[in-house]
Each structure stands twice: as structure tokens, then as C-alpha cells.
Design brief:
Blueprint (H helix, E strand, L loop, with lengths): L2 H24 L24 E2 L6 E2 L2 E2 L5 E5 L4 E4 L4 E4 L3 E2 L2 E2 L5 E8 L2 E8 L7 E5 L2 E5 L9
Parallel strand pairs: 3-10
Antiparallel strand pairs: 1-2, 3-4, 4-5, 5-6, 7-8, 8-9, 9-10, 11-12
Length: 150
């Protein structure tokens, strides 16, 4: 290769290097970095349903199933709260002592061992239901157990 060719290649390499350096440097601090997305809104405050016994005046947020497991209901999120671990399951709006939009379930009051309690029952059958969490979903089963001391 001739000396003129080598000088031309060297000049081209230098020019290319200068262009790359200028382009790289202009990207370093010339513009502001992208802004972080805004944080998600805080979750809605839980507002527990309070069930009242019109006969005795007793009121509570704790509702028991046939095994004396306690659930609560968030009226803001229309959710059943599994008290054992705090998991929430949507689809349980509360109106008065009725639970679910179709009113299929009802909170009824009774007395066990001298203690006034609220029980999760079927509205028509009036028996206490068994509530379990199976595979991450709520399972509600009929029983023949009646509300004690009613």
C-alpha cells in the first residue's frame, strides 16, 4: 500500500473516531434522564361492615362460620376478609345483614357459652355455612348446623 493510501486511511480513521467521540459525549448529560413513573395510588382504606342485632342491640364485625372461623367484610371493596391470614376475596357486598348482591347469605345472631355472636348463614335455609379457602378461592358449603341460642 502506498504512503498516500495509508495517510488517507489514517485520516479517515481519525475523523471517524472524532465523530464517534463527539456523538458519545453529547449523549452524556446533554438531556435529563427519564423520570420515574409516579407511584401507584395507595390502596383504599378498609371499612369493616358492622352487623347489628336489632333484638339485643349487639354489634360486631366478626362473623363466624360452622367451625367458629372468623371472617369480616370490607364494605369499601365488597370483599370477604379471611381473618386467619388477612386474604381478601371480592364479590361480597354487604347491605344491612345481607351478604352478596343477591342477598343469598345473611348474618344472624346467636349465643354460645354465654357470648353473643354473629354467624354466616344461608338466607333461606337459615343454617350456618362452612367457609374454607381452597386453591386460593372461597368455598362456602351448606351445613345442617343451626344458630345456637337463637
Amino acid at each position: 500500500m502506498g504512503a498516500d493510501c495509508q495517510r488517507t486511511l489514517l485520516s479517515l480513521n481519525r475523523a471517524l473516531l472524532i465523530v464517534l467521540l463527539i456523538g458519545g459525549l453529547s449523549g452524556c448529560g446533554g438531556s435529563a434522564s427519564p423520570t420515574a413513573p409516579p407511584p401507584p395510588p395507595p390502596p383504599a382504606q378498609v371499612q369493616l361492615a358492622v352487623f347489628r342485632d336489632s333484638v339485643s342491640g349487639f354489634s360486631t364485625s366478626d362473623v363466624r362460620d360452622s367451625q367458629d372461623q372468623i371472617v369480616r367484610f370490607d364494605i369499601t371493596g365488597s370483599a370477604l376478609i379471611w381473618v386467619i391470614d388477612g386474604r381478601r376475596f371480592s364479590g361480597f357486598p354487604v347491605t344491612g345483614n345481607l351478604v352478596r348482591a343477591d342477598g343469598f347469605f345473611q348474618v344472624r345472631f346467636g349465643t354460645k357459652d354465654g357470648e353473643r355472636r354473629a354467624y354466616f348463614t344461608e338466607t333461606v335455609a337459615t343454617t350456618i355455612c362452612d367457609i374454607e379457602i381452597v386453591g386460593g378461592s372461597v368455598s362456602i358449603t351448606s351445613t345442617s348446623q343451626t344458630v345456637p341460642g337463637n
